[in-house]
Structures are given as C-alpha cells and as structure tokens.
Amino acid sequence: MPHTTKAQTRARVVLAGVIAAAALWIGMAFVPAILWAGVLAIGVEPLRSRLAARLPRPALVAALLTLAVLLVVLTPLSIAISQAVVEAQAVTAWIADARAHGVPVPDWVARLPWGSSEVTAWWTLHLATPEAAAAEFGRLDHSLWRTHSGALTHTLVRRVVVFAFTLVVLFFLLRDRDTIVRQLERGATRAFGDAGDRLGRQIFAAVRGAVDGMVLLGLAQGILMSILFLAGGVPHPILLGLFSGFASIIPFGLAVVLVLALLLLLAKGAVMAAIVVGVIGYALNFVIDHFLRPTLIGGTTRLPFVWVLIGILGGVETIGLLGLFVGPAVMAALVLLWREWVAEGDIGGSEAGHTAP
Fold first, then answer.
1. Cα angle: 342, vertex 344, 345; to 5 degrees
2. Could you report the per-residue pLDDT of 237-292, keeping only the tens digit for each?
3. How many CA atoms within 13 Å lie on the side-chain side of 335?
4. Do the Cβ atoms of 37 and 62 come closer than 8 Å?
5. Alpha-carbon dihedral of residues 182, 170, 294, 200, nearest 10 degrees?
6. Cα–Cα distance for residue pair 45/119, rounded to 1 Å
C-alpha cells in the first residue's frame, strides 16, 4: 500500500474543507429546506416505523408520509386563506361604508369599565362623521401597500419553493433512512469516537422533543382554543382556533390571538364572556408553556427548563421558525458536552454520558 505523507494528509484535509465550503456556499439557499426535511423526518419517525413494519416497500412508505405532511400543512392553510379572503372583503366593504357615512360610536364603548369618555371623544373626533372617517382611512398610502404587496409576493414565492424542495428532500430521507442513519453514525464515530454517537442521539432526542412539544401541543392547543372560542361566543371561532394553533407553536404567541379574541368579545358588549375566555385561555397557555412543553422538550434529554427556553427563544430570534427545533438541539448538545467535561475532565470519556450534573 502506498505510504501517505503528513503533507499529503494535510493537503487532503484542506481540499476536503474547501470542497465542503464550496458546496455549502452553492447550496446555501436550500440549507433551511434540508434542515426542515431533517426535522420532519425525525418528527414522523414513530409513524414511519409502524408503516415500515406493515409495508415492505420503503419508497411507498416515504411517499405516503410525504403526502401526509403536505396535507397537514395545506389543509389548515387553505381554510385560513379562504376565511381570510372572506374577512378581507367584509373589511373592504366596511371601510367603504365608513368613508361614506362615518362610524357611529358603538354601544359597547359606554359599557367599558374605564376610559369610556376618552374613547368616545377620540371616536367622535376621528370616525363619527364621514369627513373624519375619510380623512382617517385616507392615511393609508396605496403606493406603500403596492410596495408591500410586491415584497409579500416575492416572500411567498420563495416560501413555496423552499417548502416544495423540503418535501422532495423529505421523501429521499424517509426512503433511504436506514442507509443515511448508518452513514451518519459511522461518520460521527470515526470523527469523534463514542462522543459523536452520544451527541447524535442527544440531538435526535432534542429534535423529537421539540416536535412533540411545539407541533403536537400546538395542534392540541388550537383545538382546545377553538372549543373555548365557540363556547364563549367569539366571532369566527374556527379561524381564530387555527391561528391559535399556529401561534402557540411560538412561545407566548397565543397571547396575541387571545387579545384579538377578547377585543372581538368587547366589541359585541360581552364583557363577562371576555373575562371568562381570557382567564381560561391564559391559564391554559400558562400550563402548556411552563409545564407540559418544557417537560416534553427537556425530559428526553434531561435539559433544564432555562436551557430549553434559551434554545427556543434564541433560535427563533436567530434563524426564525426553524430555530424552534434547532435551538433546543444545539443547547442539548452543549449541555451534554458540559456534563461529560465535568464528569470526566475530558469530552468523550467512556462513562461521561451517563453522569448527571
């Protein structure tokens, strides 16, 4: 066998680094799609295992799961868009009527527990007469709206392309799952030894916990909020329930939807219903955000709550929605490395991964 010199080894490492950097630079636009596909593949792994036990064809299993992910995303999105279009038409008609006839002070303003006179005075000055209403709504700059609509269209097209590529990558990840896992385990072990395998398992567990804690709890929370809105008489309970499900995936995002629901109830004059919905909704949000979600995310990796919170909020702040899943995974890996360092004095000791702080 030809002898490899140290210079050749160094040159090979440099060449590999350059090629990897070039590949990352070329495919940078699709890195989010690849990461999303990885998150989704980890999230549907339990379902994939059950289907694979019944269906011997990996390609069929991958196709069914990819189609299921597509439907899970498109179905509520289609409902929300159709409802939003109807509401936008109603709002447009309301604004046109307000410009022509003004907006009388509604009855619920007089029933406000505080600030009634101030709100009445402001409403009379800015909205009560056709002239005032036309001037107030005339502040909307149509050229600015056109600019924002162009930017929105560009963002929407980009999101659609990324989502489509995510589905393609997800199909191949699911189809070739066993081969990919073996290669990742072998590569991690060769590069980092036993610590590499433990880090991989920790990251996998953190992503699984984040999917369960964010997505599944978010869907459950959306259903519960729809029932609460329907029982409380909130207008458009299904639409607001869908928004609640999406918003609850983001920490403290449900509070914004709850405020909107309470304002709609106050506009109807249903003060007591607003109080009941607000108390139950915020109590539900508190229990899920402070107890259930941290338990699901941190329980599988023994990740303390504060690190879960830092990973989620920091991830969202840094890389957007994808940070909900990447952030906890990074923090879980960091905590594991710290535990190994404290336990053994070196990262990757044989017993380090089994010692808690």
1. 70
2. 887 888 888 887 776 678 888 888 888 888 777 878 888 988 998 888 888 777 77
3. 25
4. no
5. 20
6. 54
Yes or no: say if 173 and 180 are a contact pair by the CB < 8 Å rule: yes
342 conformational bin, left if phi > 0, alpha if psi -120 to 50, beta if neither: alpha
Would you state the structure tokens that stand for residue 291, as one six-digit string?
A: 């107890």
**Are the C-beta atoms of residues 90 and 83 closer than 8 Å to each other?**
no
Distances (CA, A) of 54 to 51, 57, 177, 180: 5, 9, 16, 21
Give me the pLDDT at residue 350, please: 46
Give me the phi and psi of 93, to 5 degrees please: -65, -40
- 258, 171 contact by CB (below 8 A): no
SS3 helix, strand, coil % of the chain, rounded to 5? 85, 0, 15
Q: How many CB atoms lie within 10 A of CB 220?
A: 14
Q: Tokens 């600015």 sit at which residue?
A: 144
CA distance 150 to 147: 5
CA-CA distance, 127 to 245, in Å (whole number)?
34
How confident is residue 121, by pLDDT bands cut at 50, 70 and 90? confident
Cα distance between residue 272 and residue 303, in whole Å: 41
Contact 357, 342 (CB under 8 A): yes
pLDDT of residue 345: 56
Paired tokens of 229: 């809105």
Rounded Cα distance between 30 and 158, Å, is: 11
Contacts of 332 (CB under 8 A, 6+ apart): 202, 203, 205, 206, 301, 303, 307, 311
Tokens of 287: 């229990």
Structure tokens at 279: 């108390």
- 237 C-beta neighbours (distance < 10 Å), count: 19
| Residue whose C-alpha is closest to residue 195's, from 348, 337, 344 | 348
44-82, pLDDT tens digit by residue? 888 999 999 888 899 999 999 999 999 988 887 787 777
- Count of other CB atoms within 10 angstroms of residue 86: 12
Could you count the other beta carbons within 10 Å of the beta carbon of residue 305? Answer: 14
